[in-house]
Amino acid sequence: MFNNQDIIALAKKAGDAIMEIYQRDFAISEKSDASPLTEADLASHHCIVDGLKQLTPEIPVLSEESGANEHQDRLSWQTYWLIDPLDGTKEFIKKNGEFTVNIALIDQGKAVFGVVYAPALEVTYWGDAEGAFKAQKGQVTPIRVSALPADDAVWRVVGSRSHQSDEFKAFVQGLPETEVVSMGSSLKLCLVAEGAADIYPRLGLTSEWDTAAAHAVVTAAGGQVLQYPELTPLLYNTRPETLLNPFFIVCAEKSDKWA
User: Fold this and answer.
1) Do 38 and 25 meet the contact criterion of CB atoms below 8 Å apart?
2) Which residues, other chains included, contact 71 with Cβ-Cβ below 8 Å and sequence gap of 6+?
3) What average pLDDT is seen over the chain?
4) Omega within 30 of 0 (cis) for the link into 119
């Protein structure tokens, strides 16, 4: 249907467009939900949408920057591309490098393939049925989630760089000894996927395009993304009224320390 490497190359092409803008002054506007928007968001959006239409014209595309028609039409789609052209716009504006290009393939509500590219860090993650991988400095490495921490071990907990909710703080207090690692964008999920963190409790609002690509990487790395507190798999395109995710937990597996 498509070559994974073509999609990875497309993510990097979008990243190049983002970096061209990142390295100079750029305008910042505000969307209707008060979230920031830059010309880099739009440049990446057009790059990816145009590229996907050439590579896979038979698969529809839903982007964070898509219009209202696509947001409505997606309800009839079984298989589609779900993209966030620039995840972590706040991190982009702060110029801390923790922003990503996210491209995911959704099939029957599941994220079955995903690419997460952090252009400022020059790191790429991707995952599919063959496994999960990280590419950095020309080296491609298979990645895998860590085993659950031992009873006396410190839990490595990922938290948002820009917003940690009261629910998150209460969740962390319920764990044994913890070390909180702050990170921006979908890189938070990727830290769990590569075994650099044990758990990421996202007890705050996110949209489906924020998580889908990294969700595919986590799944391919042997991990889980579970709705919280139900602890059922997080699915996509199942709620007609919203594209917001419920609260969720990213982990290697359930543990009685928090479940």
Assistant:
1) no
2) 62, 243
3) 93
4) no
